[in-house]
Amino acid sequence: MKRKLPLGIQDFAKIREAGFVYVDKTARIYELITASAGPVFLSRPRRFGKSLLCSTLAALFEGRRELFTGLFIGNSDWQWKKKPVIELDLNPGNYHEGADLLNAMLRNNLETAASKMDLSLRGTVLPEQFMNLIIDAKNRFNARAVILIDEYDKPLLSTIDDAGLYKCLQNILKGFYGVLKSADEYLEFVLITGVTKFSQVSVFSELNNLTDISFNPDYYDLCGITQEELEINFEPEITGVITEINQNKQEYTDKLKHFYNGYRFSEKAATVYNPYGLLNHFFNKGKFESYWYSTATPAFLIKLIDEQKIDILDLERKTITIRDFQRFNVDKMNALPVLYQAGYLTIAGYNRETETFILDYPNEEVRASFADSLLEHYIETGNDEAYAYARKINASLIQGNPEDALNALRSVFAAIPYDIHIKQEKYYQTIVYLIFRMFGLNCLSELRTADGRIDALVETNKYIYCFEFKLTGTAEEALKQIESKEYLLQWKSGGKKLFKIGIDFDFEKRNIGNWRIASGSSA
User: Fold this and answer.
1) Alpha carbon of 329 to those of 39, 41, 196, 197, 198: distances in Å?
2) d(Cα 46, Cα 65) in Å, to the nearest integer?
3) Residue 123 and residue 495: Cα distance in Å, rounded?
4) Angle between helices 384-398 and 425-438 (to 10 degrees)
5) From its phi and psi, is residue 8 left (phi > 0), alpha (psi between -120 and 50) or beta?
6) Are the CB atoms for 261 and 227 separated by under 8 Å?
7) H, E, C per residue of 245-282
8) Cβ-contact 12, 56 below 8 angstroms
9) Domains of the chain from N-terminus onward
10) How far apart are CA 106 and CA 421, in angstroms?
11) How many whole angstroms separate alpha carbon 355 and alpha carbon 296?
12) What's the CA gap between 311 and 426, in Å, rounded?
């Protein structure tokens, strides 16, 4: 019998009562609620289970013990005393509609929370109503209140491209979240979740007892699914897929890890899967598609990359400090921490001596899909024909046919609108790199060697391609550079067929001009 997977379900009670698969996170939750003395903040990318975490905590503090039967905390020494819970969810709503919508959303959240506790809102303005509700809840239940704020930053992230509206919503949230500091004596536990940590919002600038666990290695897997959790909790789904496709289990799980795992949230070298992508993969009988990435388009992030003139070819293995993450300021925004917090980059390494993090793409889903979005931005076309040619390029390289790949590459450049200003070698090089990446080829750009830099190196199961591009030189000169600098020396003993490819670009024709190919087999 096929098991029920909780696709898009963030209600803990519904998951447990209806028999959906649930990965037990209550051991980590127990650690959190017994160790935290003040308000807690957790930043994670979208669709990572933050809402389910809030829902689980709500059920726990409401004393709904029956929902935790068989889970870690159900067998622990947790005291099942019912406490008043105030849940605020700011995820719904189109905040571009203005301040009235935000005010309405906040008031609706307060009214819903009050109704669940048989209370009524007192006061005229939102901060006053929030404060009174906290006090009334404590008095009614003779217990301090629990506050759970999910996606606190959604109104700000939604309007970040509208400075005037952003400032207006920011001021509303400052007054509203500022209540938490004044209400400290009435609060048992506070969790605030979001994608990023806005330094200007008073919930962070005024709450000096706020604990940010976003980078705490003890809670790296509070949201997300570890490799061990995958193998234990989804063994039936894994067995079903490998039976369906008749594939070796190790090969399949390796591919699964390469495509969906890789998110790292601390200096600890441990990673997790995005739950949304993983569940969709199993629901769709093992199809490897970009489920998480397709739920949102990173248009704002691509615009930010453009504005800060970040080199796409050098986006991998970027170095950043913990202070860069803590300085999120909408007026002076750094694209790299934003890309990390949004889930498009993740921690790939940590240097304890310099206290610096190395960022890179988390997995193949994000790497290939982001390349797709960037390519569409760079060539400014959604032309299906251009993408069909791009797919042919990659297929030809996998099959060992560079001539076919380069002919198809000409067709891609021919599809770029004429009014796009092209006069730099870097532009052509970027397009070629993105085409290779968007369909999953292993491509390295600006690769350093002992005697220079390789413009692009593509490696498949059987072939290695070394590309050198020239805008002002010739294809012959490009090929001669590959050979004279012995760019492929370190790959000569790898057993794969080697291709050296020199390409020149024709600025007048706005396309690649000539190319020269030399090949040989490695030892």
Assistant:
1) 22, 18, 10, 9, 6
2) 29
3) 76
4) 80
5) left
6) yes
7) HCCCHHHHHHHHHHHHCCECCCCCCCCEECHHHHHHHH
8) yes
9) 12-219 (3.40.50), 224-379 (no CATH), 398-521 (3.40.1350)
10) 47
11) 32
12) 9
Do residues 504 and 475 make contact, with C-beta atoms less than 8 angstroms apart?
yes
Structure tokens at 437: 């990446």
CA–CA–CA angle 222, 238, 285 (5° rounding): 105
Cα separations (Å) of 157 from 154, 311, 341?
5, 24, 12
Structure tokens at 186: 């009435």
Asked whether 86 and 131 are in contact (CB, 8 A), the reply is no
pLDDT tens for the chain, residues 1 to 523? 689 999 989 999 999 999 999 999 999 999 999 987 788 999 999 999 999 999 999 999 999 999 999 999 999 999 999 999 999 999 887 888 899 999 999 999 999 999 999 999 999 999 999 999 999 999 999 999 999 999 998 998 888 888 899 889 988 998 899 899 889 999 999 999 998 876 655 456 666 678 889 999 999 999 999 999 999 999 999 999 999 888 899 999 999 999 999 999 999 999 999 999 999 999 999 999 999 988 776 677 777 777 777 777 667 778 888 777 766 666 667 788 888 988 999 999 999 888 899 999 999 999 888 888 887 777 765 567 777 888 899 899 999 999 999 999 988 888 776 655 555 667 777 888 888 888 778 888 888 887 888 999 999 999 999 999 998 899 999 999 999 999 999 898 888 999 999 999 887 777 889 999 998 765 5
Residues 460-499 as b or e (16 or more Cβ within 10 Å = b): beebbbbbbbbbebebeebbbbbeebebbeeeeeeebebb
pTM score, whole prediction: 0.88
Dihedral through CA 56, CA 59, CA 65, CA 69, nearest 10?
-30
Largest CA distance in the chain: 83
Q: HEC profile for 364-422?
A: HHHHHHHHHHHHHHHHCCCCHHHHHHHHHHHHHHHCCCHHHHHHHHHHHHHCCCCCCCC
